[in-house]
Design goal:
Blueprint: E1 9-12, E2 17-20, H1 21-39, E3 44-49, E4 57-60, H2 70-82, H3 85-96, H4 111-126, H5 129-143, E5 146-147, E6 152-153, E7 167-170, H6 177-185, H7 191-206, E8 217-220, E9 227-231, H8 243-258, H9 263-278, H10 303-319, H11 323-340, E10 358-361, E11 366-372, H12 373-390, H13 399-403
Antiparallel strand pairs: 1-2, 3-4, 3-11, 5-6, 7-8, 8-9, 10-11
Helix pairs in contact: 1-2, 1-12, 2-3, 2-4, 2-12, 4-5, 4-6, 6-7, 8-9, 8-10, 9-10, 10-11, 10-12
The protein binds glycine.
């Protein structure tokens, strides 16, 4: 099927505005070219730009760098949208840079973020068999962290002793299940899908409060498998709702519903999404970094959470069996993208990132009110999905497959 290159506009009822996805993809491409000219073919990766800075802080390619996959992933999405051969060269360069990481034993659960955002998009768009093998190997490596007594993947092996978290699982880990489902379908071990589903079930049973809000970290007993406690790591307090944690839950359960297709996961994705939407500030679509932070409205917002949720809700709207909810999620996502694409949140001439105003780790006072690579990754993913949705395609569809 050919791709119509028409300007796509969508009406946003409650903001009485329209969202121009092509304009914002073009903006993203221009910003990405600024980053390319700033860093060229570096051996390091752009991670953040703090609020008083104008240039990227670069980080080495290390297994402990959980964000390593996002810059290559941004380049792959930009290439998908522009077919710019120059961008393809950089996407290939930065993906290949991660190769040493693919030969190591499991460091922690972030392998999914690192490999699926980079190599996952690389394989999706090129069909290169070497990329495929790397992802299959990474899925097997990630699965070595699964504890079948508990029924989840261990997120942080290095936190077992220092904080006495015998088996810890963080909500972010839901994002790494997609790579396991993918591998099980693409010739990897079929049990990888069972591990992913078991992880999602255990997490659903223990990692959430009654209202659908999650603790960042669930701590389990390695011997009995029992849930011990829910605590926070990056939120304000154990009892509060950390915005990005809830964003990971919305995205994660949407993927888990897409894969095994069990309706209980759809109903759960709705529950966690509805809580998030109900707690947004009035007439705003970008949350404060923690919904219960004590000094709201004088707390920083987190654009990264909004970008993750915007992307997830586009898919959730397509998977919905309830047309009213489907419309509600689509509209909420477009409203989030509209707000993220405003001069308040787009970096424009302030710095070469796509977005301003994300919060990385407030309790550590790190990356507070910053541009961060994962906000940009999920923003360009959401824009790409939005364009597909407006063209009547599945948001997870691949332009390459379509054109072939
Ligand atoms: N995975 C870490 C974070 O969301 O900041």
């Amino acid at each position: 099927m050919g791709i119509a290159l028409t300007l796509l506009m969508i009406s946003c009822a409650d903001k009485n505005a329209s969202f121009d996805v092509d304009k914002n993809l073009k903006y993203s491409h221009e910003q990405i070219k600024k980053t390319i000219s700033e860093i060229d073919s570096s051996q390091m990766l752009p991670r953040n730009i703090l609020s008083d800075q104008k240039h990227w802080n670069m980080v080495p390619v290390e297994i402990s760098e959980w964000t390593a996959g996002f810059w290559p992933g941004i380049l792959w999405y930009d290439y998908e949208n522009t077919k710019d051969a120059h961008v393809l060269d950089y996407a290939t360069h930065y993906t290949d840079l991660l190769h040493p990481l693919t030969k190591l034993p499991a460091y922690d659960h972030d392998l999914g973020f690192q490999i699926f955002c980079s190599y996952g998009n690389a394989y999706r768009l090129t069909g290169n068999e070497q990329y495929k093998q790397i992802i299959l190997n990474a899925a097997d490596t990630l699965a070595t962290l699964f504890n079948d007594k508990v029924g989840t993947i261990l997120s942080w092996p290095r936190e077992v002793e220092p904080r006495n978290w015998p088996h810890n699982t963080i909500m972010d880990n839901m994002m790494n299940l997609e790579m396991l489902y993918w591998a099980a379908k693409k010739g990897g071990n079929k049990s990888l899908a069972d591990i992913a589903t078991k992880h999602a079930e255990t997490t659903m049973n223990h990692h959430f409060r009654e209202d659908g809000g999650n603790y960042h970290v669930a701590v389990y007993d390695t011997i009995t498998g029992d849930f011990i406690k829910g605590v926070t790591h990056q939120g304000y307090a154990d009892s509060t709702l950390w915005a990005r944690g809830q964003a990971w839950a919305i995205y994660g359960y949407t993927v888990v519903y897409r894969e095994p297709g069990d309706k209980k996961f759809l109903r759960f994705a709705e529950k966690v999404a509805d809580l998030y939407l109900s707690r947004l500030p009035e007439k705003e679509y970008v949350p404060f970094w923690d919904f219960d932070a004590p000094n709201i409205p004088n707390e920083p917002h987190d654009a990264s959470a909004a970008a993750i949720v915007a992307s997830a809700l586009l898919e959730l709207s397509q998977l919905e069996d309830n047309t009213q909810k489907a419309e509600e999620y689509k509209l909420a996502s477009i409203n989030m993208l509209t707000e993220l694409s405003s001069d308040k949140y787009q970096s424009r001439d302030k710095n070469p990132a796509l977005l301003l105003h994300s919060v990385g780790h407030w309790p550590n006072k790190s990356e507070v009110d910053a541009s961060i690579n994962y906000a940009d990754y999920y923003y360009i993913e959401a824009l790409t999905r939005c364009k597909k949705l407006l063209q009547g395609l599945k948001v997870t569809e691949n332009y390459k497959d379509i054109e072939n």
